Amino acid sequence: MIYDESDRFNPRDPYLTASKLSKSDKRSAARQLATQALYQRHISGASLNEIEAQFCVDNDFTYADQNYFHDILYGVHTNLTKIDTALAPCLDLHIKRLDPVELCVMRLSTWELLYCIDVPYRVIINEGIELAKVYGSTDSHKFVNGVLNNMATRLRKAEFKERKR
Fold this sequence. Notes:
Belongs to the NusB family. The chain is mainly α. It has a single domain, classed as Orthogonal Bundle (N-utilizing Substance Protein B Homolog, Chain A). It has helices at 23-44, 48-58, 66-78, 80-87, 100-115, 121-135, 140-155, 157-164. Helix 1 crosses helix 2 (48-58) and helix 6 (121-135) runs antiparallel to helix 7 (140-155). The longest helix has 22 residues, at 23-44. Mean pLDDT is 88; it is low at 1-7.
């Protein structure tokens, strides 16, 4: 299948109705909003409650899984030390030197790799790449791809072994 940019989920599509969205579409939208919220938290240092309340007022969660958004936001915050510890060996520079957008995308994806075992690692990597393409700098998706592939081989060993069979 040839990937076409028009195939991407676009919540502003006038022909899109909530009933046409799959669970994965709603989770993709939640990841987009969570990336923005994590970035806002990283830059502003505002409380999670304030950020979540603002996002709930400013965004239409008809198209996004609000519970998954909440889980990501609080899951990344609660497990930040474990996430950064898992990320560190996969990076060739210190976490503090990373671009904030790339860092937020990789933290979100690492949280999913660690705690969302029901989501295949390939989906998590693909979603991270797409988030980096949308919100990151020109080639940040390549960096994110490399780090997340490395991370997935470390955190999802059983899934990798099963896939190779």
